[in-house]
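REQUEST FORM: STRUCTURE PREDICTION
Request ID: SP-0412
Submitted by: Lab K.M.
Chain count: 1
Length (residues): 429
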Amino acid sequence: MTALPLPLPGPSSAVSPTVPYTDEPVALLQLDGADPGEAASAVYREVRRGRRVVAVACGGRDAVGSLARALDAIGVETTRPAQGEAVLGAGVTIVAGPEAVPGRTRSRPARALRVALAGCGVVGGGVLPRLLADARFEVVGVLVRDPTRARDTPIPAGLAVSDPAALLAREPDILIEAISDASTGLALIRAALTRGVDVVSANKQAVGADLPALIELAAAGEARLLYSASVGGGAALIETVRRARAYGTVVRIEAVLNGTCNFILNRLAEGRPFGEALIAARDAGFAEADPSADLTGLDAAAKLAILGHEALRGRLAADGVTRQTLASDSVLPAGRVRQLARLDVRTGEVSVALRAVDGDPLFVDLADEWNALRVTTGDGRVFTARGRGAGRAPTAESVWADLTDLAELRANAKENAAGSREPAALESP
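STATUS: Completed
RESULT:
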C-alpha cells in the first residue's frame, strides 16, 4: 500500500457572510487498490485534516469501485468524474490509476507500542483485529465484563481481563477506551493519564463529563488524550470545529449528533409508528437495549459539550444543555424533523431539540445513522461536515485514525528527543 500525500495550495477566494468556506488544501494520494481498507484509511485521515482529496486508485479494473465502497462504509462521500470532467472537486474524488503502483514497505518499529483495549463490543471489536494484524502494535490486554463469553471478535488466549486495574498493570503505552459505561470509562481514563499512559477514547459520556479537567490531567502526566471517535463516529466533527476555531471566533454550532434518533425520525417521516421505528433501529444495530440516553437528548448533549469545549476552550456541562425528548407521544413540527443540537454564543442558547429543517440542504436529506455539523464564525465563514455517526466501521475507523496519529506523534517526539538529547514532553490537545 502506497500513500503519497502531495499538499497543493487551495483556491483563494473572498468569503462573504453565510458562504461556506472552501479555501481548503488538496492532497493527492496514490493508493494500492489491493487493500481498499488501508487505502480508505489513508483517505479518511486526510479528510479529517480538512483537505480535499484526489485519490488515484491503482491495481486493476475494480480498484476505483472497491475504494469507493470502503469509503462509503465509513461514511466518506466520494465522486468519480467521467472522462472529460474536472478532477478537482469538493470532498473526495476517485480516479483510476495504473495497473500497479510501486510498493512501499512499512518500516517495522524498533519496539511495538503496547496497547491495552478496554471494551470488545461494537467499537472495540472492530479495532481489535486491526491491532493484532499490525506490527506497530502489541496488544497486552483486553478489558471485558465476562472473559468467558463467546464474541463475534475472538480475543486471543491470555489477553482478556475483567479488572481495570489488572489491565493497567500490564503497563501499556496506549489505552484505547471503548466501553459503554461512563463512570468506569472516566475512572479508567483518569487512572491511565495519571500514569502517563496515552489514551484514545470513543466514550462521549466519559470525555464530556469534564473535558478541561481531563486535558489538564493529561498535561500533568505528560500524556495525550485523543477523542475524535467520541463525537460523530466516522464524521470529522471535532476536527471541523477545530479548523473553524483556527480561522476565527466560533459563534454558532448546529448539528445532528445522534444516529439513533435520526434513524427513528426518518422512519416516522415514512409514516411508521414510533415503536416499530425503535425496533428497526435496534435491529440495525444503532439503538441500545436501553435507548433512553439517545431519546432524551443526553447523548447529543454530551457530544455538544465536547464540541463546545473545542469551540470556546471552556467547560460546557452536559447537564446544563436544555433537552427535548423523542417519545411515542411527542408532538413533532411539520415537515422533515431532526434532533438538532445548537450552541449560539450570541443568544446564549445551548439546546438539543426536535426541529423542522425543511430547506436546509445540510440536514434535510440526512440518511439514517448519519451525523452533520455546521459551524459559523464571527466573520461569517461556514464550515460543514457529514458522515456516518454510528456503527462499527465508521467509529472504529475514527479510533484507528486517532491511534495512528498518536503513534506518529510518539515517534516524532522520540526522534526529537534523540536529536536534542533532552526529554520531549508531549503537549495536550
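NOTES: Residues 392-420 form the longest helix (29 residues).
Reviewed by: T.R.
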